[in-house]
Design a protein that fits this description.
The structure is a single chain. The protein is mainly alpha-helical. Helix content is 76%, strand content 0%. It contains 17 helices and no strands. The longest helix has 38 residues. The N and C termini lie far apart (68 Å).
Length: 327
């Protein structure tokens, strides 16, 4: 009934059970009247039986679990050749174990890493993504009422670039758990990537309505409104949550870009260039904001200022200026 991740959790749990037992336990007559084993009986009967039972339990419960865990660790360990890891996951798929939920969810994470890695081949990326999708489909079929598995299936589809099926999986999860803010956030993110800004706006606001005390949800709701062109609604959420509309956040940066609110976008990146941890990339992003707004002169001036501060970025600066000038 209970699984804890460290021994101290077990100590507290059984200490509570012992306390409850000491206060409310009642004698069990048939147990008290049972004959007491003598030392000879114990050696003759109890010890051999207990040894056999213990050996069987250790083999089927502990040893097999340890073997599976070692195999999974090997599958997830960094390797110069992703094919070796994929072969282990393929073996898991061909020979399922009781812990397949954990294995399949790790397949999804592994597939994402393979797809994003510049050192893996196209065939490896396709194999990893396909395996993750196939195995998560089996997991969903085995546990059709578990919303978590639909979310993992959605991640697998997104890894393969299949936003349409990822959205369907998310919708299935929402049907099973309609009050989970994270699910609406995930659905809105997929719709955002599909350029369905209106749908994303609705889902972000639904998530925020379910959890108005969470500032992260407020940011997404405001971003959805801003990207959809409702700046007033977005500002209202920002002010209510942060006390200001000048909030430094990447999701807002994207929202300002999609909503073509160039003054806000430029203001956000200009503020970032004034921070101690600003880099050449920060200044180039400010230049890109000017460029997006059609202000080529300030874009070039910003790039020159970046190169003056960070001489190592000179080559990138020259290339960016040529792009702006159309050369």
């Amino acid at each position: 009934l209970f699984v804890f991740d460290n021994i101290y959790s077990y100590v507290y749990f059984f200490a509570i059970l012992a306390l409850v037992d000491s206060q409310v336990a009642r004698p069990v007559k048939w147990l008290q009247d049972a004959p007491v084993l003598t030392g000879a009986d114990g050696m003759t009967y109890a010890l051999p039986i207990a040894a056999v039972v213990c050996s069987v339990l250790v083999w089927f419960v502990n040893i097999t679990g340890m073997q599976s865990a070692s195999k999974l660790i090997a599958a997830l360990s960094p390797s110069d050749d992703a094919s070796k890891n994929l072969a282990i996951f393929e073996d898991f798929a061909a020979h399922p174990i009781p812990q397949m939920q954990e294995v399949r969810e790790q397949m999804v994470s592994f597939a994402e890493a393979v797809v994003q890695s510049p050192s893996t081949t196209s065939a490896q990326k396709q194999q990893a993504a396909s395996l993750a999708i196939t195995q998560m489909q089996k997991q969903v079929a085995a546990y059709p009422l578990d919303a978590r598995e639909f979310i993992e299936l959605s991640y697998a589809y997104r890894t393969a670039g299949d936003s349409a099926d990822a959205l369907k999986a998310l919708q299935s999860a929402i049907l099973l758990s309609p009050k989970k803010e994270e699910f609406f956030l995930e659905e809105g993110t997929v719709e955002w990537d599909m350029n369905d800004v209106k749908a994303a706006q609705q889902d972000f606001n639904t998530a925020y309505a379910l959890g108005p005390s969470f500032s992260n949800l407020a940011l997404y709701a405001a971003a959805g409104d801003i990207a959809a062109g409702d700046q007033a609604a977005g500002d209202k959420i920002l002010t209510a949550t942060f006390g200001t509309v000048n909030v430094d956040n990447d999701i807002l940066s994207v929202a300002y870009y999609r909503g073509k609110n160039w003054p806000r976008l430029i203001g956000l990146w200009k503020a970032r260039t004034q921070k101690p941890d600003a880099t050449a990339a920060t200044w180039f992003s400010l230049a890109a904001s000017y460029y997006a707004a059609g202000d080529n002169a300030d874009a070039i001036a910003t790039i020159n200022a970046a190169v003056a501060r960070y001489p190592g970025a000179a080559a990138s600066g020259v290339a960016a200026i040529k792009q702006i000038e159309g050369k």
